[in-house]
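Priority: low. Protein: histidine kinase. Input follows.
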Amino acid sequence: MPLGIRIFLVYALFIGLTGYFVLNTVMQEIRPGVRQSTEETLVDTANLMAEILRDDFKAGSLNQNRWPELLKAYGERQPGAKIWGLPKNQVNHRIYVTDAKGIVVLDSSGVAVGQDYSRWNDVYLTLRGEYGARSTRNDPNDPGSSVMHVGAPIRDNGQIIGVVTVAKPNSSLQPYVDRTERRLLAYGAGLIGLGLLFGALLSWWLSRALRRLTAYAQGVSKGRRVEVPHYRGGELEQLATAVEQMRTQLEGKAYVERYVHTLTHELKSPLAAIRGAAELLQGEMPPGQRQRFVGNIDSESARMQQLIERLLNLAQVEQRQGLEERVAVPLAALVDGLLNAQSAQIEGKQLRVEQTIPSDLVLIGEPFLLRQALGNLLDNALDFTPVEGVLRFTAERAGEQVEFKLFNQAEPIPDYALPRLSERFYSLPRPDSGRKSTGLGLNFVEEVVKLHGGTLSIGNVDGGVQVTVHLP
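Result:
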């Protein structure tokens, strides 16, 4: 199972369990909380009624006054109120008064007058000077039929002479409880959904970051040129930096060893030629022969210098994982500059140059590397083009890239050599001198083209050889 999915599943499990326990705890607290708030209101109401009814109760005139009619009228009122969006069309309080013996003397419902309520906690405890309250079901089999009762003492000079009880059915509170529960469930589900979405995004981001590092490590192990992923701070940036440093150290060590072996192998021949010529020059020989050996030493020294310089240039390009700058380079101006630099050799061989590159066509990359790469292609073409031959430069836009072509009139490249032309140290003999080059020019061109995200191809065409380069 991918790491990102495992992280998300653990996160989802944590969010789910946390959401369940939090919602379950809050849901269990809603109903008691509403009832506690209601009970507090009933306490205030009962004590208010105890003060209002005290004088009439002491005088024993509760039933002779208008209190029964007032309480009956109160029970018939229709408020027509909207409380937080819920309608309230009837009053739900029941008020009854008992004497010091617990006998009901006044009841807003009119059904309990004369009954003995002394056994109920709201009356029994209040008459004893304690807080009296109870919750009783009207239907023993129906939990939703419970009614809260809160009693308040009627006092005469500090002596309890009666009790006022205010009752409210819990069913009248149920719509508010249900609405609160629905809203809480909706908000809870929304928060859990947002938490899961955040967890999914976090898991995707983390797994994507790790995949980028994995792809980078795999690309490096396969020898591909890849850029190290960039992160903004944190452990991922430190990990990417550490991996890049490890790659640099490991590749640098192997790279140095490989190039030492390569340079040693390639320098054997010119060094042997120079040493042989130097040994012969120590003896007596005709001036003409001496001059020939001196020329050999000079040419082999130049060959060694060219080999070292090209190896250094190639090593610099091969070690880089990306471009240091990306600027617009006018292609026509770049080719014209290269042709001007080689004007002496072009005129000496009486070559015909055709340059039809549009002046507004540009490449995106490093000017120095592009000039070196195209310069190597031109040098190669000049070596193989015969006297009075043709060089043709063309270019056109191909989607997001520029297709650059260099044609030079020459003998066809042998089929066996075509796949090896950009191979390091592989070279074909020049038609004029029969000598081979360092075999590093086309390899350098290929590395520069790859560094720019392009492609290089070389093939035979009618009348000569054509190099095609695709660059951004």
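The radius of gyration is 50 Å. The first strand starts at residue 81 and ends at 83.
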